[in-house]
């Protein structure tokens, strides 16, 4: 029926391969043919650089420094007469600006003790989540990113007032007025 007598004899010796690193194209073609024949042709493939893969880091992380700077100016000087649109913080939320503000606030609030930075960030994230959930339960149409952004940027006046309070703390009446005005 079937012929099962197949010669299975052979040796396990590796073939002799001589690789010269000369720039001769004939030898290069031989090495290329050798690698392709053995199934290692994928080693010779070169990927073309896509425009998406070679984006700058800030663009890759979706960080727009001009937008963040504009939002900071809108929060610190909320005067429409100067051309600052206060609604941009709510209407065009971002993550990196508020995160930078919260990190700066945490560094200033306890003079750079790194162990509290995680607590302040946690309070910012979960406090924003609580406000987001309350707003949604009450029928508000807000996104979590909007709440994170608004609460993050709202810490800016506190960051600005800290150096002023350090300077005027010896004048009790003036520091009390500033605390009532901004606090």
TrEMBL record:
Coiled coil: none annotated. The chain crosses the membrane at residues 95-112, 119-138, 144-168. Residues 84-168 form the Yip1 domain. It is a multi-pass membrane protein. Its main location: Golgi. It comes from the Eukaryota. It is found in: Golgi apparatus membrane; Golgi apparatus, cis-Golgi network membrane. Keywords: Golgi apparatus, Membrane, Transmembrane, Transmembrane helix. GO terms for cellular component: Golgi membrane; trans-Golgi network. It holds the Pfam family Yip1. GO terms for biological process: endoplasmic reticulum to Golgi vesicle-mediated transport; vesicle fusion with Golgi apparatus. InterPro entries: Yip1/4-like (IPR045231), Yip1_dom (IPR006977). Belongs to the YIP1 family. Involved in the maintenance of the Golgi structure. This is Protein YIPF. It comes from Scyliorhinus torazame (Cloudy catshark).
């Amino acid at each position: 029926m079937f012929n099962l007598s197949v010669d299975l004899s052979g040796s396990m010796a590796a073939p002799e391969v001589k690789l010269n690193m000369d720039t001769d194209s004939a030898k290069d073609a031989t090495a290329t043919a050798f690698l392709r024949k053995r199934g290692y042709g994928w080693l010779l493939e070169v990927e073309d650089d896509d425009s998406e893969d070679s984006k700058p880091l800030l663009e890759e992380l979706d960080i727009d420094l001009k937008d963040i700077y504009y939002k900071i100016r809108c929060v610190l000087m909320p005067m429409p007469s100067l051309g600052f649109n206060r609604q941009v913080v709510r209407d065009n939320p971002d993550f990196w600006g508020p995160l930078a503000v919260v990190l700066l606030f945490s560094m200033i609030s306890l003079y750079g003790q790194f162990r509290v930075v995680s607590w302040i960030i946690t309070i910012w994230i979960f406090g924003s989540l609580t406000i987001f959930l309350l707003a949604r339960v009450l029928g508000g149409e807000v996104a979590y990113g909007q709440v994170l952004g608004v609460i993050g940027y709202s810490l800016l006046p506190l960051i600005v007032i800290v150096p002023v309070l350090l300077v005027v703390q010896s004048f009790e009446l003036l520091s009390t007025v500033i605390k009532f005005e901004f606090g």
